[in-house]
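Quick one, tokens below:
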């Protein structure tokens, strides 16, 4: 996949399902078609059905078998366009927008499509600390106002708490957390920030006090409560920019998201942010689509 792909070149390069299928086959089986069930490369092609028959276990399969696209009746060309749009839209694309853009028959189809692509984006979760250098850490509260519920900045009765850590000019780690207690925040920092990091910068939230001593890393803060935003190179502007982007995507694109599916929306933002300078973002997401298991609608709505 070329690095300078855009929507027009995507449509020109993949004008029909046959071209899409050919590209997926090259990505999934660069060394030749292999049975996804037993791994045997002795297969016979069933041309009229765009499938193969394994000569060992007799499993009949297509290029999408066992992937996120498994048993999907949506044309591959529409899959490609949806994947591209979700890669390129900085604030995300709503299911309603995809329904209109792709001419999908129902909102249910578009909603399921979006969540399957998000599932693929989060298919390769981070393991262990990955952030180094200068790291900014901050938490935010996501959710609207409800009549009779607390409305203060730290009222969590109607909100979901999310924490993030951003490496300066690097990657971001985002996670939904149950509370803002010191133990919870410390646990997140230990799991995301390397002990060789140069410094951790936060705001004045009380639970961060003593973080440097507990982590054995230099820790400094900015006092937002007295309108102190930048002191030298100490600030949390990078991570706050991520929150701004996330909340604008909710208000401008999604309008509302449920707590149940919050993790997938965070994984989408995290993946797109971490690949913001990746010229092969579309190709890499296609690879994840092929490596991710099927996500059934009844599993999503359980």
């Amino acid at each position: 996949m070329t690095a300078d792909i855009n929507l027009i070149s995507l449509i020109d390069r993949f004008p029909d399902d046959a071209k899409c299928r050919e590209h997926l086959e090259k990505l999934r089986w660069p060394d030749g078609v292999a049975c996804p069930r037993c791994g045997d490369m002795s297969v016979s092609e069933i041309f009229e059905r765009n499938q193969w028959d394994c000569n060992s276990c007799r499993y009949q399969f297509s290029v999408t078998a066992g992937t996120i696209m498994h048993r999907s009746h949506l044309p591959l060309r529409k899959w490609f366009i949806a994947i591209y749009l979700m890669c390129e839209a900085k604030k995300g694309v709503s299911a309603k927008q995809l329904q209109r853009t792709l001419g999908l028959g129902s909102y249910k189809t578009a909603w399921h499509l979006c969540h399957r692509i998000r599932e693929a984006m989060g298919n390769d979760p981070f393991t262990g600390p990955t952030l180094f250098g200068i790291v900014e850490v901050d938490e935010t509260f996501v959710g609207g106002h409800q009549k009779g519920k607390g409305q203060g900045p730290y009222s969590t009765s109607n909100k979901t708490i999310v924490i993030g850590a951003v490496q300066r000019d690097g990657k971001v780690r985002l996670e939904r957390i149950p509370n803002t207690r010191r133990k919870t925040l410390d646990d997140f920092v230990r799991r995301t920030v390397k002990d060789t990091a140069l410094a951790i910068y936060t705001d004045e939230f009380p639970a961060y006090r003593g973080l440097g001593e507990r982590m054995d890393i230099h820790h400094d803060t900015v006092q937002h409560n007295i309108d102190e935003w930048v002191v030298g190179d100490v600030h949390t502007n990078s991570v706050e920019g991520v929150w701004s982007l996330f909340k604008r995507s909710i208000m401008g694109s999604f309008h509302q998201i449920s707590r149940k599916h919050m993790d997938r929306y965070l994984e989408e933002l995290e993946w797109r942010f971490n690949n913001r300078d990746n010229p092969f973002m579309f190709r890499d997401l296609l690879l994840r689509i092929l490596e991710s298991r099927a996500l059934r609608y009844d599993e999503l709505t359980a």
